[in-house]
Amino acid sequence: MHTVITGEIGINHNGSLETALETMRMAAKCGVDAVKFQKRTPDICVPESQKYRMRSTPWGDIQYIDYKRRMEFDNEQYGELTKEAARLGVDIYASVWDMPAAQFCKDIGFLTVKIPSAMVTNLELLDYCKDNFDMRIISTGMSTEEQILTAIEHLDPHVVYHCCAAYPAQYEDLNLMRIPYMCEHYEDCMIGYSGHETGLTTTECAVALGARYIERHITLDRTMWGSDQAASVGPVGLERLVRGIRDIEKAFGSGGPRVIQDCEKDKLASLRG
Asked: How far is residue 93's CA from residue 112's CA, in Å, rounded to a whole number?
């Protein structure tokens, strides 16, 4: 069994291609299977009431819409990211937040797409992604069971993530026991876990409970500027997380009736005679 681990770079690059590339290299060194970004069309995604509010940013005090535009990579920059992912041997894809973003990801050749929790009810987007991407993933934070089942019907996803959409999420809000429920009731999908908590143990626990896909936000430095940094995992934490998940995979074994293992035979001989 192999748990697919995705490092969610998201917007933690703060609009810097070099930071994004460096984060990808760090993630690959730690052993992730994939890296993920977020693709938005700010003029569509940002509410009118928010567009022209001032925000303090690394570029000074600017309008929120200008900040969001600065965070988006263009065709050429995604070309560099895709080339580096291929060199590193990791998959690359993005969460899409609107129709033009989904079309952009299709046009640059992404085969995998993720629907973020916020877009679970955007049925037009789900239908488009179903028809245009080979691998489809969806997160289910801040959604009702009815909304999730409707989204599954429209998207026909390969992977459904359990998720608590709080940044960072508190342990008492994670509800990890939902993972076995999903494994039982969502029989046509692989079940995953997208974690926003600050620790690692609960994400490892999600694997033990049945999650076969894991996603965590990652960053070069959790003290960097940005709204997602506090809920992200740094280089040391990511290395520990990947190692912990791989150790859990080794420990699963084959189940079934108890048998005497080869590693026990010396003790069997010395202790029982």
From this structure: 6
